[in-house]
Amino acid sequence: MDVEVRIRGLMMDPSTNMPIIMLKDVGSDSVIPIWVGIFEANSIAMEIEKVALPRPTTHDLTRNLIHHLNGHLEKVVITEIKDETFHAVLWLRQGDEPVMVDARPSDAIALAMRADCPIFVAEEVMQSARLNTSGPSDGPSADQLRGWLEGLNDEDLGRYKM
């Protein structure tokens, strides 16, 4: 079973200076962090803030290609964690044909925002990420990070229009 999530905020990990996307379960207070690259975080932030650029970004281009190939992005699902790395799948439809495409979660989220489609996390991933909130292995311990994440307020996470 998949759990629908929304972006709760974007922030920087103070120990690694890597961006973190905070995803919140729409049906509970559960939140999971996903560390992403700076370019993907910037793309997501630009879409959150609805910044109009003069030329399409890679995620805009991908959305446009799907549209012009008579496709539709139905949802994205963060499906698993392998070797401390999240994996995602784009669920597309082209005509009557369903198409699944492997994707990085950061790209899937950036694309979902542009296509205005839901974001899901597999229940097993939600459970695992809640229990194991460790970031990169050279970062803080899971308990330290959990305490830090639980102590965050709206100003720490930023306020975004959704």
Radius of gyration: 16 Å
Can you list the strand order of the major beta sheet? 3-2-1-7-4-5-6
Instruction: Supply the CATH architecture.
Output: Roll
Low-confidence stretches: 131-139
Q: Strand-and-helix sequence, N→C?
A: EEEHHEEEHEHHH
Domain unit count:
1
Structural class: alpha+beta
What does the average pLDDT come to?
A: 86
CATH C-level name: Alpha Beta
* Separation of the first and last Cα atoms: 24 Å
Number of strands: 7
What proportion of the residues is helical, as a percent range?
Answer: 25-40%
| CATH fourth-tier homologous superfamily | Bifunctional nuclease domain
Query: The biggest beta sheet, please?
Result: 7 strands, mixed
Tell me the CATH topology: Bifunctional nuclease domain
Number of helices: 6
